[in-house]
Structure formats: structure tokens, C-alpha cells
Write a structure and sequence with these properties.
Blueprint (H helix, E strand, L loop, with lengths): L20 E4 L4 E4 L2 E2 H7 L2 H10 L5 H13 L5 H9 L6 H12 L6 H4 L10 H17 L13 H10 L5 H13 L7 H10 L5 H13 L6 H12 L5 H10 L17 H17 L3 H19 L8 H11 L7 H22 L25
Helix pairs in contact: 2-17, 4-7, 5-7, 5-11, 7-8, 7-17, 8-9, 9-14, 9-17, 10-11, 10-17, 11-17, 12-16, 13-15, 14-16
The structure holds coenzyme A.
Length: 380
Amino acid sequence: MPEATYAKGLEGVIAAETKISRVDGENGRLYYLGYSITDLVEHCDFEETTYLLLYGELPDKAKLDEFRKKMRDARDLKDPIVEMIKNFPPKAKPMELLQSSVAYLSGYVEHAIQHSGSCNCRKTLHQVVQLTGVVAGLARIRAGKEYVPPRMDLSHGANFLYQLHGEVPDAFEGEVMDDALILHAEHGLNASTFTARVVASTISTCYSSISAAIGALYGSLHGGANEKAMLMVKEIGDKSNAADYVNKVLDSHGKIMGMGHRVYKAKDPRAVIMENYLLELSKRKGNMKYYEILKEVEAVFRARMEEKGKPIYPNVDFFSGAVYALLGIPSELFTPIFAMSRVSGWLAHILEQREDNRLFRPRALYVGHDERAFVPIDKR
Ligand SMILES: CC(C)(COP(=O)(O)OP(=O)(O)OC[C@H]1O[C@@H](n2cnc3c(N)ncnc32)[C@H](O)[C@@H]1OP(=O)(O)O)[C@@H](O)C(=O)NCCC(=O)NCCS
């Protein structure tokens, strides 16, 4: 066995090989299967991107048509799932429902992996597609409205807005939503993706692996920064208050949400795309407030950081919350939307794990007691 080294949080440890995505943090680039995220957003939709992630190549037209049909056929929720949403505890968080719903959905599927060891995870795609209906359905049911069945003629993102609002979004808004899903679909071996691979490595099903990954994303250190960035925008209220806000946070050694990234040391390429969408959406909606506040926060923050010789840029979460808010999406759905999108990347990693599986089994460095004499309960 090779000599073991200890790295808290596995920092710097390479725990898997992957061909799925490459993050070039120095130059601010992100690639799925070698294709730049900028090209994918320009030329593909979320369904085609999901095909690329799951099959490793871009599809020809016939393959894409067939895959699109399969994804759309999987859109509508079965009645028991709608009932589950209605009966879920009213105070439970949307991520808890999402995690449970994927485990519940699993009961409808034949899991070849458990019988033959071969994998049929690409077969039905309910575990990828139905997150959208669950998130939209939950928001509607909690608002006292009815679940809206999906439309089959809309992109994945546009259909989400349709199922959420009960109205077909205009073409631009549908495109923005669909592209936001592309941008969040995959990002290497982050905590939730690692979780999905660890669970898959036990030859558990892709549904239980995805359900576990949703649990990992639920934690505030992983998902949730865009919700906090949007709370910040609301707290600032007007761009004239932005400088005071940023200075106060930095003077008290606090964090500005949506700024900085562990891997990107240049501007996050997803933030560049989201910022453009936010600007365009703000103009079309005649509401420049969020955009102006965010740009002022960015300018003041970056100037303060540069004084200290630390060039720190916005990450995707800095702008995405404001984009979602302008699309009429309540902020408690921001992390569930992240899951709706990242599920394609999770499934891609589960499939990759299965190609050359080895059970994840790291060791812990024991720092506890040496052997101790047992003390009977009446002597403690
Ligand atoms: C993502 C994050 C944890 C990366 O932190 P990191 O790896 O320490 O980043 P860096 O090494 O580039 O940070 C350099 C310095 O800038 C500071 N810094 C980085 N991001 C900051 C932020 N958003 N607000 C205030 N200070 C920040 C760090 O605290 C560090 O200060 P120090 O040198 O005095 O310790 C951090 O940027 C952060 O907390 N951002 C806000 C939360 C967020 O948006 N998360 C979503 C990420 S996709």
C-alpha cells in the first residue's frame, strides 16, 4: 500500500480520473468534454448538453431528436409524486423534498445495476428530468395553486418557467433559464459530485446516488451563495448604499457573497455570461436596480481588494440570483434549481465511476485514546 498522507477536506488530493469537465481557473475557462461553456451556451440547449455529458460526444440530429423525446416523455410527474409534494411537511425545505422525491421515484424503476452489475441509468431519465416538475410543483402547491403539467414543445428551461408560472415565458426568458441550467450542469469533483461517485462506487443505484448528492448540495457551504447574494442586494436596497455596505462588511472581516472562488483566479466564465443576461433582462424588464447595485458592489469590493494586492472577481452566484429574481423565481428555489441542473453532471460522473469502479474507502488518521480499562456504569 502506498504511504498515506493526510489532507483535511481532501484538499489537493486527486480522488478520481475524469474526462467530463475541465476547469481552467488561471484563465477563467470551463469545458465540458472539451467544448467551451461559451460555445455550448451559444449553440446547444440543456437537453443537448445533457446528451453530451451522458454519452461523451455531441449527438447527430437523429440521436438528439430521440434523446429529446425521451427527456420530454419523462417530464410529467406521476400522481403519487404530486400527492407527495402536497403532503410534505409545510415547513420542510424544498431541498428535503427534492432529495426524498428522487428516492421515491426510484421505486418505479428497474435497477439493472443491482441484478446484473450493468448499468441502465440512461434509460428512463426520470431521475434527471423530473426534478424540474418537483421544484415547480412545490412552489405552486405551497402558493395554494395547482400543479401544472409540462408542455412538450418547450426547452427544459422554458418548460420549468411554464410549470412554475402557468404561462409560457417569452422566448428570451426561456433561453436565459435554459442557458442558466447549462452553466450549472457540471463543475468537476465538487462535494455533491464526489458524494454521487462515492455512493455509486458501492454499486448503489443512480437514484440513491443522486439523492445523496442533493443532500450534499443542501449544505450552505456548497449551494446557496446566489440566494445570499440576492439577500445582500435586497438589504442594500439602492446603489447609493452599496459602498457603505461593502466597506462595513470588509472592515468587520466579513464575506461579500458571490465574490471569489477556490479555483477561478480570473473571472468565472459563467459569471461573464450571467452578467450579460442580467443586463439584457434588466433592460427588457425596465428594472435596472439589481444590476446597478451589483455593479457598484463589484467596483467597491474589487478596489478594496486590489489595494491589498488581491484581485478577486465575481463568481456565477453573484449574478445568477438577480437573474432568477427577474424571472419571477422565489429565492428559496435557487438551490433546488442548482440541483435541477447539476443532476446531469452527477449522472455523468456516476456513469464514469461505473466504467472502472473501485469502492471509495479512504482511511481516517486515528487521534483518539490509547486502550483504556472499561469502567462499569455504577463506577462512572
Ligand atoms: C469561495 C471562497 C470560499 C474562496 O476563498 P479562498 O479560497 O480563501 O479565496 P482566496 O484565496 O482567493 O482569498 C484570498 C483572500 O481574499 C478574501 N476573500 C475572498 N473572497 C472574499 C469575499 N467574497 N469577501 C471578502 N473577502 C474575500 C479571503 O478571505 C482571503 O483573505 P486573506 O488572504 O486575508 O485570508 C471565498 O471567495 C468566499 O467565501 N466567497 C463568498 C462565498 C461564495 O460566493 N461562494 C460561492 C463560490 S462558487
